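Morning!

As promised:
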Amino acid sequence: MTAMWAASPSEVLYKAASKAAGRRRSVARRRLPLIIGLVLLAIAILAVTFAPLLTSAPPNKIDVLNPLAPPLTPGHLLGTDQFGRDLFSRILYGGRIDLAIAFGATSVTLVGGTIIGLVAGYSGGKIDNLLMRIVDLFFAFPFLVLIIAIIAMLGPSTFNIFVAIWITSWVAYARIMRAQVIVAKKQQYVLAARALGYSRTRVMLRHILPNTASAVIIFSMVDAIGNIILAASLGFLGLGVQPPTPEWGTMISDGQNYMLTAWWLTTLPGLAVVFVGVSFSLIGDGLADVLRPGDR
Amino acid sequence: MIPAEPTGPGVPAGPGLPPVSPGPPGQTSPPPDTELAELAGAELEPDEEAAPVPDPEVAEAVLAPVASSAVGTPLLTVEDLRSYLATGHGVVRAVDGVSFTLAQAEVLGIVGESGCGKSVTCRTIMGLLPKGLAHSSGRVIYHPRGEGSLLDASQDQWQALRGSQLAMIFQDPMTALNPVLTVGEQLLEAVNAHAKLRRDAARARAVELLRRVGIPAPQRRMRDYPFQFSGGMLQRALIAIALASSPRLLLADEPTTSLDVIIQDQILSLLLELQQDTGMSMILVSHDLAVITEVCDRIIVMYAGQVVEEGRAAAIITEPRHPYTRALLGALPQAGHQGELLSIPGHPPSLIDPPAGCRFAPRCPLVTDKCLTWETELLSTGGDGHLARCWRHEEVARQGPATQGTVPQNTGPQITEVHE
């Protein structure tokens, strides 16, 4: 305390300057989660894309002599499952489906929900009311129950997982976007844009969207993890990807009977889910920092 | 002058029109009058877009602030405009029976305290009031478009009018530009909004516009984001954007309120100069009578949603006919005045349930019983269309021009007392 009082003005300034320098360094440090997340995700994408180069074993080939082989068995890096199928190969090929769901399902709901929220928020009145009541309808049901009902109706298949997510998941984006747009449309630059005779579409897409999109983009990263876990959950329930096609959730589900004798059947696909989940989560965190207003 | 077809980037401003150099604060610039006289002499090559530009004789007359109100044919007529807004407290009669006419190439000032309906009047003319929360009646006639009221215009008609015919600049330049787009992108957008220009032509015009409003190194500044501009520079950029499609009417809603005094002066001179160049009409809204008198040909004084006085700028200053105008003039700070600055006691009345009779009565030093029941109307007070909403306007006029300290104050509840 006394030291603070004793500090001369130049010392105070020096401290402030070094603090400012620290802030500048921390801008780079704030990017770190984003970079790590992107690197991890890139590793995952490359691994599943070039799966044939990383493993010679086809994912569905049965090695009758080696069922339930533990990891590091010669010829089976991560061991085999109860049918003697190579686990490493199955995790890589299974990742193709999980990552496809993360990107394919999430991107469609992101774009669709954002447009619906943008229109609802900017139009207001009857259009807003109608769209938001539809959103409420979806929120009224437990999410997983709704998905299960849709898949039960359409029949379990990989494509129907996409369809079920497309139908149900846009509502969160619409709601987030609408709230952002309602704030943004009262800003003076929106009024100024209207005063220049710009069309509604132009005002929405060029002036409101770029100022409001960060929230939904960040949320989409969380949602992508959610969709992988959802696909895994559906696989676990037997409603997802059908055997023998490999998929992480189905693999975990199949492995549960061998949990005590062959831990790798559940643990290793589970770690794959965690790996991709963490990478998306880091990207979401990093984007939140980078897109935070006022830090340009 | 803003050339309709710039020949390329880096081209100097139009013939006889040196680019405005804003100069650092404190640097003396030639007095606006001489500058304008030069401009008026050299200019008058009308754009195809800018309709009937006054002939040279008339333009000379525009320079003389007194004899200007008769110039030109009417451009905008507002008849009995009423704009009511729905709020949580009730229906606010923000504009309550406003009528005026704006001539071609005229600069009209609207002055009044905050909450007198000045901005709402502007936004009604631009059709920018929130739908569903506002209702406007009366007529707003933009004459080049015909005799139909703008209040009945469709969405498409509005889009075609805004920007190209009517433009508006706003009070706070800091928030009136989109923070995520560069100034250049936004200016190009405005240039392209109502015209089909080739890429390089549009860019050249954008650069030329920035140069014209006095932004140094316009090529480089095009790439900057709004936060890299100062307040005065932003307002200049906004003026450039507003003028991108050569509108015939510019509404300036308190364009200098958030700027410091030296920048205020520069922006006002710039606006006036551009108005002279292009022959557009301008409505300048301000709560600052000093700002208004500097620039305008004619002045409307608004109080509580109504016009209380209207007349030529010089007449309003030297011979106010309404006690409110007189009180506003009396509240202007003056160099050399000692002691406290005067203000008008009290507040404007609530516009949800405005009082009967004269709305200024509770604050008026000349109030009588008659004022509380008088069905107010704008009375002609003699020549040159000088109107005042006060039945005692002759007495007000007899008191002469108001200066700091000469306006008697309504000190207490004297409403029953009759000053005869």
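The interface with chain B takes residues 124-125, 187-189, 191-200, 206-207, 210-211, 293, 296 of chain A (CB under 8 Å).

Hope this helps with the figure draft.
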